[in-house]
Design goal:
This protein has 141 residues and is an all-alpha fold. It has eight helices and no strands. Helix 2 runs antiparallel to helix 3 and helix 2 packs antiparallel against helix 6.
């Protein structure tokens, strides 16, 4: 697979975060449960769109999948239990952000999955820090 261009790499790195931020901001404005359901459905579609683009260009990260799962859970809960989940997500939307960050970082190593297919470490050659003090001391160069 050829390396990604810088704009694509930047896009795939940053793309999942606006959806979480938007849900947090939208939830803090005190919307009705119906509009919160509609917005979460749109953000679920957005996260699936990001996963699709990541699959086409490179490979989705665990964070991409966690965001998609989070918005699918939020949407389903808002549809099935609107009286409970509407006020919950209005007041505790930031908890979902922390849950996504924690899940993407904690569970893959615990479940012995392969390391995260993060874009930046695989495609960037080591710059001026490629030769560290430890490497040069151990090799004698």
């Amino acid at each position: 697979m050829k390396p990604l261009s810088s704009p694509r790499e930047l896009f795939l790195t940053v793309a999942p975060f606006p959806a979480l931020a938007f849900l947090k901001i939208w939830g803090s404005l005190g919307p009705s449960t119906g509009s919160l359901t509609f917005v979460s459905l749109l953000l679920w579609g957005y996260s699936l769109f990001i996963i699709g683009i990541a699959q086409k260009w490179d490979q989705p990260t665990y964070f991409d999948w966690v965001i998609g799962g989070y918005f699918s859970l939020v949407t389903v809960l808002l549809i099935l239990f609107p009286d409970f989940s509407g006020p919950f997500f209005r007041h505790y939307a930031v908890t979902g952000i922390y849950a996504c960050l924690f899940s993407a970082a904690f569970f893959p190593p615990v479940l012995a999955w392969t390391p995260s297919p993060s874009i930046t470490p695989r495609n960037r050659p080591p710059g001026i820090f490629g030769k560290t003090l430890f490497l040069s001391a151990s090799t004698g160069s």
